[in-house]
Amino acid sequence: MKNIVLTGLAIFACQLTFGQIVLKIQGKVSGNTEGHNQVYFYNQLKKDSARIENGTFEVTLHEEEAGTRAISLEYDRAKRRMYSPVVLFYDQSGKINVTFDIEKGLSSAQVTGLPSAATYFDFNAARPKIYMASRKETIEKFGADALKQDHQDFQSATAYMGAIMQQKNDSLMRAYYKPEKLVTADLLLSLLSTLPESKLDNYYQGLSHEVKASETGQVIKAKLQGMKNGKIGSTAPDFSLPDKDNKQRSFSEFKGKYVLLDFWASWCSPCRASFPRIRQVNAKLKGQDFVIVNVSIDKNKDAWLKAVEEEANPWTQLFDDKLISSALFNVGAVPTSYLIDPSGKIIMKEIGFDPKGGGAMEKKLEELFNIKL
Questions:
Q1: What is the dihedral angle through the alpha carbons of 325, 330, 331, 337, rounded to the nearest 10 degrees?
Q2: Domains along the chain?
Q3: Signal sequence: where (predicted)?
């Protein structure tokens, strides 16, 4: 199974500056914590915590601008339990109420209070239901086995399911679409890999000037452009980014070789888990017309530099301070890798990492260089 992490831009995109936001988060927790009482509130730049006492917790956060904080639990870490964080959106001062059963996990959470936070939560809570409903309809039409890759109806069934999901997600977006609200840009951002480019563009064009000017609005604009630039068969655009020594490096300097352009982040555990295998691949292809270029989507440059030093990968490391991951390549999850041929044409894209190796990207490299990785 491939491992991926949604990009920081997708999860933690910040918004326009409004002056300081004072956010009070109050929680009610049922179930036995077994002494694992800490609740964490974090994004890429900050981390705070509160302690559950007598079934409640409270924390006051001071933010300079609108954005998001994700919630995670000490209980989940202690139990080594898989979880999806609850993400709280805020665009003004106010109170957010969070309730959940600690034994059932954050999947049991409910969010009320600040309208934008409730909207963001309710919208994202509806997304898995769309997937399940679409899958159910597909199975009713084709049978459960049709969704297995080796089934003769796999392509027809997955296309059918994709069309249903697209329709349902479009209906969901219409139900929550308020072009003057900052939260709408974040909802739209979450659907960039789900809706057709034309629909996405129509939603973006309908946003108010202020929402378009927000950081998330700018990310959406960049990603829409990236959808056009990052298609298989298109020529990879040139760009210039700083390396770990703060020297500007142009992508054009690698032209004439096959380039594995690998997008990652210091906080992305699947990305960092991929590096030992990539180092093996790099060693096997030593002497070939092949190079690897890492591009980090970190916002925290110090965290990136620390991770670069820890990993000590023997290839070029670049820091994406110009959002080229969005504007030029439409990276929506990390790790994401592009394989670019010596003429500069994009010939393959792979999202995620298989810890066992042997994925489609490796098979393509084996084919190109007549080598067994």
A1: -90
A2: 17-113 (2.60.40.1120), 119-213 (no CATH), 240-369 (3.40.30.10)
A3: none
